[in-house]
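Design job #97: recover the sequence.
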């Protein structure tokens, strides 16, 4: 009897012991694994979700919390940028250390060679431009600058500076202070389309920097005149006559009309060639830039000595406007409605007169630049 009681006690004791072991083990497993998962969930929540109710939800309901609350796209984008910057900084530190120690992986060497971001971490400063888009007005100068700016090694000044035509007496230091801050390795650039026709601009730009790179965008001169006229007309100039009366005088092209003068490209170009070798100039086909920007942009990229970056991913065709726009990871951008205005209807007779008028100037221009454009 006494033995059987002892055995029963033993069984109960073993059972209690097992229960205790299971409880301790489960607590241990919870703290080790479930707590780890909770931390992971919290870390994740730091980036995407609010974790305010995380602990309470877990404790009361016993399941992992994925409590989604309102988070704006900007918040997520900011966090992603923070992470990217962190990774980039870490990489730069690693590269620096590797350079100091003289050990570099093949990947690091490749990365440095590519030099997409040669000076991350440097302080941005304002420097004089290394390249200028000098014109021509109404040929696509804005589109060209905006498209160029998609390149990480371009620091483009947004507004037109008009230093060499209107603000020259303010001095070079004023000019420098108008530039977008840049880091070493970036090319600072500005566009002011009126430089192309400003008599003193070639000389003054040359005296600032005789090895500066000059980019000129041109377009069929007749279309350019119509575009120029449309721009002035859009400003509501009250005394502006219709296109035909403005551009013709007694049936002949009115050479005193400024828009006509601007389209006589060869006359203006000669002044530039008096100061700069042709090799320092690049001519963009503005008509092609409208129809298919990538090939033109690749040529500009090469001319400026930039690493290969701009690709078809940077553009998309906007059916509504009939123009290419800039595509971005988080935002895309089309030029304002002042670009791509509807032109007035012009009779074929007037168009032909303008084309005949510009033809000899065009031929001269093609000879000067050793390049032809497909203008009628
Ligand atoms: N992608 C894209 N989107 C919109 N517009 C484009 C584009 N590419 C070139 N263009 C043409 O740019 C013309 C305006 O030229 P500019 O920027 O040089 O004009 S300005 O001199 O700065 O006023 C403007 O001329 P108009 O069409 O006569 O308005 C456009 O045809």
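Job complete. Output follows.
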């Amino acid at each position: 009897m006494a033995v059987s009681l002892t055995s029963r006690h033993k069984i109960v004791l073993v059972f209690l012991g097992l229960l205790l072991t299971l409880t301790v083990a489960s607590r241990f497993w919870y703290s080790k694994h479930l707590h780890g998962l909770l931390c992971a969930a919290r870390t994740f929540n730091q980036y995407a979700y609010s974790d305010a109710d995380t602990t309470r939800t877990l404790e009361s309901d016993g399941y992992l919390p994925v409590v989604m609350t309102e988070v704006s796209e900007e918040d997520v984008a900011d966090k992603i940028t923070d992470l990217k910057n962190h990774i980039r900084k870490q990489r730069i530190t690693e590269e620096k250390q590797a350079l100091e120690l003289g050990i570099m992986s093949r990947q690091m060497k490749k990365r440095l060679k590519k030099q997409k971001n040669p000076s991350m971490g440097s302080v941005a400063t304002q420097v004089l431009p290394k390249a200028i888009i000098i014109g021509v007005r109404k040929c696509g100068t804005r589109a060209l600058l905006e498209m160029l700016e998609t390149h990480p090694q371009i620091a483009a000044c947004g507004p037109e500076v008009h230093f060499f035509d209107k603000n020259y007496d303010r001095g070079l230091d004023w000019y420098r202070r108008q530039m977008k801050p840049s880091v070493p390795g970036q090319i600072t650039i500005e566009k002011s389309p009126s430089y192309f026709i400003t008599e003193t601009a070639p000389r003054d730009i040359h005296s600032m920097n005789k090895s500066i790179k000059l980019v000129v965008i041109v377009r069929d001169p007749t279309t350019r005149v119509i575009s120029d006229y449309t721009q002035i007309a859009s400003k509501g100039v009250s005394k502006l006559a219709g296109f035909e009366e403005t551009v013709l005088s007694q049936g002949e092209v009115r050479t005193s009309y400024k828009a006509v003068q601007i389209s006589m490209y060869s006359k203006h170009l000669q002044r530039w060639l008096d100061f700069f070798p042709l090799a320092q100039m690049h001519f963009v086909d503005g008509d092609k830039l409208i129809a298919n920007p990538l090939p033109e942009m690749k040529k500009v990229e090469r001319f400026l000595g930039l690493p290969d970056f701009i690709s078809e991913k940077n553009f998309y065709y906007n059916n509504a406007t009939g123009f290419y726009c800039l595509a971005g990871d988080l935002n895309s951008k089309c030029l304002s409605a002042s670009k791509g205005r509807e032109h007035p209807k012009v009779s074929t007779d007037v168009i032909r007169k303008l084309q005949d008028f510009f033809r000899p100037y065009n031929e001269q221009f093609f000879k000067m630049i050793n390049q032809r454009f497909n203008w009628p």
